[in-house]
Structures are given as structure tokens and as C-alpha cells.
Write a structure and sequence with these properties.
- The protein is mainly α.
- It has one domain: Growth Hormone, Chain: A, CATH 1.20.1250.
- The chain is 76% helix and 0% strand.
- The longest helix has 34 residues.
- The protein starts with 23 loop residues before the first helix and ends with a helix.
- 55% of the residues are buried.
- Belongs to the major facilitator superfamily. Spinster (TC 2.A.1.49) family.
- One of its GO terms (molecular function) is transmembrane transporter activity.
- One of its GO terms (cellular component) is membrane.
- It is found in: Membrane.
């Protein structure tokens, strides 16, 4: 890897630090990595992404037992995920700033240590100190923020074009796979040990292996290395964080796709947290399961939902990425259309899954699986949109902003809001298990309208996608306030569709 050096300050003169531009030999030296090394690094990052999302949803898989252990109501149980997400979104901009300007491997290592240590310590909290369990989930969220923000930018610098689309598809497969295995791990460990705490003691062992693999096998490439933009990434002027944010705020493809991701996050947050309990209560209503009134509950539904999430996630991510890759050959706006169509189809599937649950469980499971599959089609495609419309040196900040907005308006509040609506509806009804189930069912219905809204956001993304992709590919394109950026932006806009069509 080539040595890093300070970049010139505004106007092409040395920055405030007194350091001058890179020596000619360093600035122009190409950075390369054998393909097998890049693939090995991608495999390690995928493994860590798997563990990251297992941590996200392991609580949801054990929710009934955790509620009984700490005596937590539905409305307060939703706060567990809200605390986690709020911590993640508040720390994501910090990690995005660090990821664009400092060593990314060191930042990722700190994040893994944070979420691993917090998860382990949460397994030793007594029922009298439930607030400590909430606090530990917040620390896990801070650690997860570092990985969710920075890891995709490393992959974006190791691969390009079709290769990047395929690698991102594999990377984002581990969102639904990790989420599903979080449910499966929690359910399996509980059945083997009879104690839900052990699920939080198994994870740190896997995370220790991940940390060693990260340090040994994952490089930290220069920003834009895979796109052969070393001169752009290292020779452009370093803009401030505020200038980066202004640039992203004027990038309409980024803005609309971020709003679409926010709506997706709202739905997946509520669905991922409450679906196992919803399915459990549906089986109670059908007389297939006794209510859970003791510490050890039957977690069969968490196991089923976890397996369902893994299978539909793998199929959905591969299907979405491959459809995008093929469709892009005839339509340069393929990514945004794939996201829009899949979301507009997912909305009625989720609606039918909720409505049919009291009538027939089989049909409810079928439509739930279809809805999850269609939602999973978006994971790799939305990441590819971001990487294609944002200049390399701003990608960490872009990832951080998308995560922050997506979580603060999406899944930071949706689990709590769903639980709060359920508790409010239940308070005005007779005290029965059927009414408890119906309250949770009706609190879910708003998710169907939010999914349709997400589809509309990606249709709006399609209107500006080609233009923003062309602008991001122009050599020397800068952020607002950078000399020459206006000229290059005008040239990019003039090139428009033609430049986009040349990209295979």
C-alpha cells in the first residue's frame, strides 16, 4: 500500500498544518492488490457483517424471555431497539468523518471491541438493574455504527463496476442472513442451555476471531483506488465536513435514495423486532400454542422466522443484484427501478400477511416470506446507487449520513412506536389474548403504507440517477466550495446520458 501524505490546502497551497502536497512519485504511484487478496478481504468483511447483524436481532429472538426476566412491557421493550438504533445513528457521523480522513482498519477494530464487550457484559446483569441492559444495547449500537459506515467504502475501493455489484450483493446477503441467524442462535442456545444469557456469551468468541482476521487480512486501500482515481482522491483539495454535507444535500439521487432507505428501515425495524412475537401470539389464537407466562418460553417462532429471513434474504439479495446487473445493460436507471418495483410489490404482500394471520397461518407465512424476499432485493442495489453517485472521498460521510437519517427517521422509532400503539389499543379493550394479538396486528398496518412510500422515493431517484452518476465519474469533480468544481459539474451535466451509457 502506498504511503499517505498531506494534501494541499485551499487554492492549491499547503494546508494549515504546514504540510505540502504529496511528492510526485507518491501521488501518481498506482495502488494495486492481487485479485485473490481482494476477494479474501471481502470474505472477512462479509463474516464480520454476519456477526454485526446477528447482534442487531439476537434480542428480538429472545424478546419474550427478556421481557419476563426484566418485567418489561411491550412499549418499553420497543425501547431496547430504539436505544440501540439511536446510539448507532448518533455515532455514525463521527465514524463517517473518521473513515474519510483516518485509518479505517483501526476504527473498525475499535467498533468490534465495543460491541463485543458490551454484549458479553449484558449477560451478567441482574433483573433489578434492567436500565443497565438498555445501556449495554446502546454501546453495542455505537460499535455497530463503525462497521456499517466504513466497511462498504472499503469494498468500494477494492472492486469496481460489475465486480463491485456482485461483491456488494454477497456482502449485503449477510444482512438478512445475519438477522435470521440472530433469531436462530438465540432460540437454539436457549433450548440447549435453558438460559437466554448464554446467547450473549457465545457471540464474543466469534467476534474475537473476526478481529484477528480483520487485522491480518483486510487492507486499507486509498480512497477511489479501484476506479484508478488515485490522482483525484489524493490530488483534489480536501474539503471540510460541512462542504461534504452540502455537496451530498445537492445530490438528488443520494437524497431520494436515502429517503427510500429510511422508509425501508422503518418497516424492517418494526417487522424484525415484533414479528416473532406476532407469530407466537397468532399460534396461541389458533390454539396451537399455550400463552407464555413463565421465564422459559417456546421460541419455535423465532427459529422459524429466522430461517425464513435467511432463505428469503439470500434469494432476494442475489435476485435483486442480478436483475440490476442485467437490466442495467438496457436501462442505465435500472438500480432505482428495481428498488421501486420490488417495494411496491412488497406492500400488498405484507398487508395480506397481517390480515390473514387470524384466519390461516399458512397463507400468512407465505405472504410474509414473499414480502421479506422483495424487501431483500434492495440491500445491495441501494449500496451500489450510493457508491455510483458519490465521489470516492465523500463515501464514508455519505454512508454515515444515510445511516443516520435512515435510522433516526426509520427503525430508531418504529419498534417503540409499534409497541406503543399496541399497548394503547390494548388498554381500551377487554383483557384477553385475542385482543392482545389484534392490537399488535393493527399496529403493524402502517408499515404497508410506508413501504409504498419507499417505492415512490426510488421512482424519484430514477429522475436524476444518470446525471449524478456522470458527475461523480468526472475527474476533478469536487465538493461545493472547491475551485473548479462548478466547471466540472457543468461538463458532467452536459455529458449526461451519454456518459452513463458508456459504463458497462
Amino acid at each position: 500500500m502506498s504511503a499517505e501524505c498531506w494534501e494541499p490546502g485551499p487554492g492549491g497551497h499547503p494546508g494549515a498544518s504546514g504540510a505540502g502536497p504529496c511528492p510526485p512519485g507518491t501521488a501518481s504511484a498506482p495502488w494495486s492488490l492481487p485479485h485473490w487478496r481482494a476477494c479474501l478481504a471481502a470474505a472477512v468483511l462479509c463474516y464480520i457483517n454476519l456477526l454485526n447483524y446477528m447482534n442487531w436481532f439476537i434480542v428480538a429472538g429472545l424478546l419474550l424471555d427478556i421481557q419476563n426476566f426484566f418485567q418489561i412491557s411491550d412499549s418499553n421493550a420497543g425501547l431496547l431497539q430504539t436505544v440501540f438504533i439511536c446510539s448507532l445513528l448518533l455515532s455514525a457521523p463521527v465514524f463517517g468523518y473518521l473513515g474519510d480522513r483516518h485509518g479505517r482498519k483501526a476504527t473498525l477494530s475499535v467498533g468490534i471491541l465495543l460491541w463485543s464487550g458490551a454484549g458479553l457484559s449484558s449477560s451478567f446483569i441482574s433483573p433489578q438493574h434492567s436500565w443497565l441492559f438498555f445501556l449495554s444495547r446502546g454501546v453495542v449500537g455505537i460499535g455497530s455504527a463503525s462497521y456499517s459506515t466504513i466497511a462498504p467504502t472499503i469494498l468500494g475501493d477494492l472492486f469496481v463496476r460489475d465486480q463491485r455489484t456482485r461483491v456488494l450483493a454477497i456482502f449485503y446477503i449477510f444482512i438478512p442472513v445475519g438477522s435470521g441467524l440472530g433469531y436462530v442462535l438465540g432460540s437454539a442456545v436457549l433450548q440447549l442451555t435453558g438460559n437466554w444469557h448464554w446467547a450473549f456469551r457465545v457471540m464474543p468468541c466469534l467476534e474475537a476471531v473476526a478481529l484477528i482476521l480483520l487485522m491480518a487480512l483486510v487492507p486499507d486501500p486509498p480512497r477511489g483506488a479501484a476506479e484508478k482515481q488515485e490522482e483525484v482522491a489524493m490530488g483534489d483539495l480536501r474539503s471540510s465536513w460541512c462542504e461534504d454535507v452540502r455537496y451530498l444535500g445537492r445530490n438528488w439521487s443520494f437524497v431520494w435514495s436515502t429517503l427510500g432507505v429510511t422508509a425501508i428501515a422503518f418497516v424492517t425495524g418494526a417487522l424484525g423486532f415484533w414479528a416473532p412475537k406476532f407469530l407466537f401470539e397468532a399460534r396461541v389464537v389458533h390454539g396451537l400454542q399455550l400463552p407464555c407466562l413463565q421465564d422459559l418460553c417456546n421460541n419455535q417462532d423465532s427459529l422459524i422466522f429466522g430461517i425464513l429471513t435467511v432463505v428469503t434474504g439470500i434469494i432476494g439479495v442475489v435476485l435483486g443484484a442480478e436483475a440490476s446487473r442485467r437490466y442495467k445493460k438496457v436501462n442505465p436507471r435500472a438500480e432505482s427501478f428495481i428498488c421501486a418495483y420490488s417495494l411496491l410489490l412488497a406492500a400488498p404482500c405484507l398487508y395480506l400477511a397481517l390480515i390473514l394471520a387470524p384466519v390461516t397461518l399458512l397463507a400468512s407465512y407465505v405472504f410474509l416470506a414473499l414480502g421479506e424476499l422483495l424487501l431483500s432485493c434492495n440491500w445491495a442495489v441501494v449500496a451500489d446507487i450510493l457508491l455510483s453517485v458519490v465521489v470516492p472521498r465523500c463515501r464514508g460521510t455519505a454512508e454515515a449520513l444515510q445511516i443516520t437519517v435512515g435510522h433516526i427517521l426509520g427503525d430508531a422509532g418504529s419498534p417503540y412506536l409499534t409497541g406503543l400503539i399496541s399497548s394503547t389499543l390494548r388498554a381500551g379493550r377487554p383483557d384477553s389474548y385475542l385482543q392482545s394479538f389484534l392490537s399488535l396486528q393493527q399496529s403493524f398496518l402502517c408499515c404497508t403504507f410506508v413501504i409504498a412510500l419507499a417505492g415512490g422515493c426510488f421512482l424519484l431517484t430514477a429522475l436524476r440517477l444518470e446525471r449524478d452518476q456522470a458527475r461523480a465519474r468526472q475527474p476533478g469533480t469536487g465538493t461545493p466550495g472547491t475551485p473548479g468544481s462548478k466547471d466540472m459539474e457543468s461538463r458532467a451535466l452536459l455529458s449526461g446520458t451519454g456518459a452513463a451509457a458508456k459504463d458497462p
